[in-house]
Design brief:
0% strand; 78% helix; 245 residues; 13 helices; mainly alpha
Length: 245
């Protein structure tokens, strides 16, 4: 598993695509948080990072599929999956090795955003600095969201040998699971009945909950369950591809 993990990390950073994806994520955040007037932290008048945690999930919808799209699809396309299947590794080890590699890259993309916290801490008036506890909770929520999106992206990559198709499937699935249930719960037909449970089934509800700075066990279990389910589906898809190959 470690050999797969190391190979994927090296492969990602050996091409310009990896750097472009991470730089694009940081640039988009920087533009929205400090340059564009409507979303600028400097225009808000108070020291917090709410703008980052509201914006980042939408940027994740593009960043994470870009990170995961080649994870398994390139193995199918190049024929190395057949070679990999002859090695003493199980499908689970392949899935976990690739998952942890992609998740580490997501974490690396998040680390530079801590500069925003330092910036608003310096700009804030004395005694009115940012709520560190709340921000740490929000970062936890963002990392857990990244873990779920990574699992979804890996599953999408396991379906096809075409990286572009994997990218599009991952974006669509992440968007539906993040926004779909929330949008569905707002339909008048579900008002006062199933709306609450529909909202709870979606990722957005639990991300918003944990981003308030309270690490509720139910939210953590939800994220772990969805990620685990997607990884299990990835394993099944991988086994089918190996068997068909």
């Amino acid at each position: 598993m470690y050999a797969i993990f190391k190979k994927d990390i090296h492969q990602f950073f050996s091409s310009i695509t990896g750097y472009v994806a991470i730089i694009g994520f940081l640039l988009a955040n920087g533009l929205f948080l400090f340059i564009f007037r409507d979303t600028s932290l400097l225009e808000a008048g108070y020291a917090d990072l709410d703008g980052l945690f509201e914006l980042a999930p939408m940027i994740f919808l593009l960043l994470i599929p870009a990170i995961t799209m080649r994870s398994l699809s390139d193995e199918y396309r190049s024929g190395t999956m057949e070679l990999l299947s002859t090695k003493p590794v199980t499908p689970w080890q392949i899935v976990w090795g690739k998952y942890w590699a992609c998740l580490l890259i997501v974490a690396i993309a998040l680390i530079p955003t801590t500069v925003y916290y330092l910036a608003i801490s310096q700009l804030a008036a004395a005694g009115n600095g940012p709520d560190t506890g709340s921000i740490l909770g929000s970062y936890l929520g963002l990392f857990l969201l990244g873990g779920v999106f990574t699992a979804i992206g890996l599953w999408a990559s396991s379906l096809t040998g075409n990286a572009v198709v994997a990218f599009l499937v991952a974006i669509f699935t992440c968007f539906i699971l993040y926004n779909g249930f929330d949008a569905l719960s707002k339909l008048p037909v579900f008002e006062g009945g199933a709306d609450y449970y529909l909202a709870m089934a979606g990722i957005r509800y639990h991300y918003t909950s944990i981003s308030r700075g309270v690490a509720d066990t139910r939210d953590i279990v939800y994220f772990a369950s969805v990620a685990g389910l997607m990884l299990y589906l990835t394993k099944i898809s991988l086994e089918r591809k190996i068997w068909q190959g």
